[in-house]
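Reply to dn_fold:

You asked what the input looked like. This is it:
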Amino acid sequence: MSEAANISQLQNLPLPPPVSYWPQTWGWLALLLILLGVALFYAGRALWRWRQNRYRRAALAELQLIESTLGSSGSRHALRQLPDLLKRTALSMPGRPEVSSLHAGAWQDFLQRCSASQLPADFSRQLADLSYAPDAHLQALGEPQVQELLGVCRHWLEQHHVAV
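and this is what came back:
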């Protein structure tokens, strides 16, 4: 027999039947359901935390507005909004801590308890000065002191912890 005759007698091999992507045993289906449940749990937890921190994002946006106002105008009058911003943020915390009546040392203690790091010892006094000091006192504040105050406020807003 010639070589050409052998090649002409070759036939195509049949393709195997398609394989389903659906799990073939109940164990794989159970593992898939468990993984899906864990993923849904963590997604729900992340959504819950995101919603719980809505007040924090709003406060940081307001602080950014205060900083931009300080940068665009030479006036330090926008600093008067910082104590109010911190108090409103504390009132908006989940768990509704009783902070509306706190002042001076008690306010400092609350801020320190919620803070992730050490606050300046006279932080509540600085906030009281911003609220009640005359405009001349605000204008006399140096740029490093203003930046430090804004940095401490930003750090507290970003990092304070909430006991829920």
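DSSP finds eight helices and no strands in the chain.
Hope that clears it up.
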